[in-house]
Amino acid sequence: MKFEWHTALWNRRFGKGALPQSILFTAMRGTGESGFAERVAVSRLCAQPLPDGDACGVCDDCRWFAAGTHPDFSRLDPEFAQEAEVTGAEEDSAADKKKARTQISVDEVRAAADFLRLAAHRGRARVVLIHPAHVMHIAAANALLKVLEEPPAGALFLLVTSQPARLPATIRSRCVAIALPKPTPAQAAAWLATAGLQDADLALAQVGGAPAAALALGERYWVVREGLMPFLTGRDRSWLDAAARIVDTDLAHLVHVLQTWCWDLAAARFHGSVRYHRDRSTELGRTATTVEPIELADFARQLTGARRLLGHPLNPKLFAEDLLMSYSRLLPKP
Ligand SMILES: [Zn+2]
To answer: N or C terminus of the chain: which is more exposed, having fewer CB within 10 Å?
Structure first.
């Protein structure tokens, strides 16, 4: 997918000429980073690239790539796999599915390595795209390192991450790191408008300005956020009622809303401004005066821990109740 804020980088480094064999793209999450890696991948698979180096979009290779069936392309991406799984097999246990969705396993890396040992079906590159690269299991990272040390001819590795520090230094040192630019607020808003999102400014604020992340929030995010508002602002004090509205698939939304809300409470208290929930600045300002900063900091730490647990099997009901009960303790007694 093409994004305006990548144009200069594309023209400078990707439009023409050879590429390093292993590239580590670093980017702010949700700014089109996997789209850029896909653009690079398909440009190397396309039978008749355009003069600017982009894939033509109409040849057999481009059509196979778009359909997810190109024989010389391998994608290791748990988030992408999750979308494909919606209509997939049901026999796996729920715990196994959760694991598969949040980590890249050693088996997946080994399968990609086997795939690279075969000659390219189409006589051009063989491309492996790994996103987000920092969710590789340690054994997977070690298996990848072996391949990166002696890469097969014609192989191209595209690793994408928003958290390069979470990758082993040995992997990073085998790749050429390229930082992807992030959009200006105007570019991000324009892109979201084209994508048909209403109230782009508020959506962008919720995710710190990352347009693809704003789009990915989805309708349910807004339902969760609105459902929490009476509780967060202290109008409705029942954490049990608030938790009852949260279902299994909402937990990431819940943690996101609570983290950004707490950030805003601190900002409202100390700076008189808010960053994320700009449409709620009045309520944030009022609530902030009733919250003890030390207790707010403790709760923020609890949320950081909760975020780490999101990918693991847990009891969703207890998880939500625990967080919302802790938040209710921040507010003054009714
Ligand atoms: Zn093509």
So the answer is: C
